[in-house]
Amino acid sequence: MTVRKTIRVLIADDHPLVIEGLKAVLQKTARDIFVCGEAPDGRRALAIARKFPADVYVFDISMPVLNGLEAMARLLRFDAAARVIMLSMHDDRPTVEKALRAGAKGYLVKESAAEEIARALRAVHRGERYLSPSVSRTLEAASLFPPRKASAKCDWSKLTPTETRVVKLLAEGLGNKQIAARLCILSSTVHVHRRNITHKLDIHKQTDLVRYAIREGLAKP
What we know:
The chain is an alpha/beta fold. It has helices spanning 16-29, 42-51, 68-78, 93-102, 110-125, 133-143, 161-171, 176-183, 187-201, 206-215, and strands at residues 7-12, 33-39, 56-60, 84-88, 106-109, 130-131. It has two domains: 7-141, Response regulator (Rossmann fold); 145-215, Orthogonal Bundle (Arc Repressor Mutant, subunit A), CATH 1.10.10. The radius of gyration is 22 Å and the shape is elongated.
């Protein structure tokens, strides 16, 4: 019989209910995980970490006094091997990428954190990276196309206002007839717009066009 090593966790969040909720879930479903410390802000979290190091740290990004990113940066200065999971209400690409570049090993969205916290802690403790599914989808969509500066071909600013609206509606799953009705134009005109879009962006598959629309912020994932 394999006995799991107890994973010591420090949770820092300025909302006590968040900490209590995560603790309750872990106490009920994860006997191999022990919350050894809790803090209402980044400064207090660091003070605890210096005296009682944890195996994994869970830091809310938006904490008072010292936010999660800065707290992580300071933690990594005196403990380069520290494993940190960022906790946030946001799953937008800039915020996620900033956290990962700064050294976070995981990223949890608060609305699903209770369901994922045990899996995330175990994965990060094993040396793996863990991202909430919505975060993974955001990064996957963003990685399908390079930034506009790196590619002159993929530049949505080349599109006319009507072509841009066509792309948005395609990304919503509408067909040519539905788009024509929405824009009060002929289906044949929609076909012409789609042909122009394909030529200007050099994107030939609708699935790739949808991903591009998400990547450029023209549509939501």
